[in-house]
Design brief:
This protein has a seven-stranded mixed beta sheet with strand order 8-9-14-3-2-10-13. The protein has a three-stranded mixed beta sheet with strand order 1-6-5. The chain is built from six helices and 17 strands. The chain has two domains: 204 residues, no CATH class; 68 residues, no CATH class. The chain is an alpha+beta fold. InterPro entries: Immunoregulatory_rcpt-like. It is found in: Membrane. Keywords: Membrane, Transmembrane, Transmembrane helix.
């Protein structure tokens, strides 16, 4: 049976760190909308030496650093949180295994290490591999990427086909993130809502979560299941948006004008007796005036809601420049 090696020296472990993810990182939409085809279907990469940097955070590395296939055997990001719409697929209890499972990185008791997978993917095996089921007769969009003679990534045209070979799987390299309790405050500052979504992976360690998640057994830095209600907008110190203030500025004068008109009608009635024709329903007019006296114009379209009614999981997604065209 082959021998296994666990790397325990701090300096040796740090050599596999790709760097921090200290911004709320968002992959390009085409990464999940369009697969890369090699012998299998892949998320973000295909043949050896082909990697789409719009689909994976670079940390402190350059493209040539992660281009070799060996760069994907064993790695992690620290301190870091999962990218947008990636979910925690598993938590590493004491070591992070290499793809061949013969080498692993030791995880200390004060450190939390989790595997983030793209939305719709789950933990497969081999260290950090994620997988998603391809159903028979499922329609797939894919490209066949490669490097040209100068080593530049060439994505190629998008093809669409119906997968008729029976159930199969698509694969993705997951993102291993590692952090310590001392990183929590810093990581909270880069989430969509820094005051919400703190989930615990153990009795002593907490992880800031960019959004809530469902369908995972391990809770931590998960971003995939929650639905955004829109970008957060600036709110004035009074708690009212500019649109709401404009609505109040228009509505209050209208209500005052209606009140003055109603008072004028009452004044005329007292002076002239009953000037209205037979069958006139004065109570209806009173009710009409009462309703419109309390009426204010709604905020203008696009105006912001009150701060205290905003959902706690509003997220901000940073726009990414992607070399693929948008597919949907």
């Amino acid at each position: 049976m082959p021998e296994t090696t666990m790397i325990t020296a701090k300096a040796s472990i740090e050599a596999f760190n790709r760097g921090p993810i200290t911004k709320y990182w968002e992959p390009a939409p085409s990464c999940s909308n369009t697969m890369s085809k090699d012998a299998n279907m892949y998320y973000g990469w295909g043949a050896s030496g082909v990697i789409d940097t719009a689909c994976y955070p670079m940390g402190t590395l350059k493209y040539n650093d992660i281009k070799p296939a060996s760069a994907w055997d064993l790695y992690y990001y620290s301190p870091a949180i999962c990218p947008k719409e990636w979910t925690v697929a598993t938590t590493y209890s004491d070591n992070i295994p290499k793809n061949d499972a013969l080498t692993s990185l030791s995880v200390g008791t004060s450190t939390t290490a989790v595997l983030c997978c793209p939305s719709g993917f789950s933990y497969y095996t081999q260290g950090h591999v994620c997988t998603s089921t391809i159903k028979e007769d499922q329609t797939l969009k894919y490209v066949v990427p490669g490097n040209d003679e100068f080593g530049t990534l060439s994505i190629g045209p998008v093809s669409t086909s119906i997968y008729s070979a029976g159930a199969s799987h698509a694969f993705a390299n997951g993102i291993v993130v590692m952090f310590q309790s001392s990183d929590t405050a810093m990581l909270r500052s880069v989430t969509v809502n820094p005051t919400a979504g703190v989930a615990s992976t153990s009795a002593t360690t907490t992880t800031p979560s960019a959004q809530s998640s469902t369908g995972t057994t391990n809770t931590a830095v998960s971003t995939g299941a929650a639905t955004s209600t829109g970008d957060a907008q600036p709110v004035s110190s009074s708690g009212l948006s500019t649109g709401a203030k404009v609505g109040m500025g228009v509505g209050i004068p209208c209500a005052l004008l209606l009140g003055l008109l109603f008072g004028w009608f009452l004044f005329r009635k007292r002076r002239t007796g009953n000037p209205y024709p037979p069958g006139y329903d004065e109570t209806g007019m009173v009710k009409y005036a009462q309703v419109h006296e309390a009426h204010t114009e709604p905020p203008e379209i696009g105006g912001n809601p009150r701060l205290d009614t905003l959902p706690t999981d509003v997220k901000v997604a940073a726009a990414q420049v992607h070399q693929r065209h948008e597919l949907q």
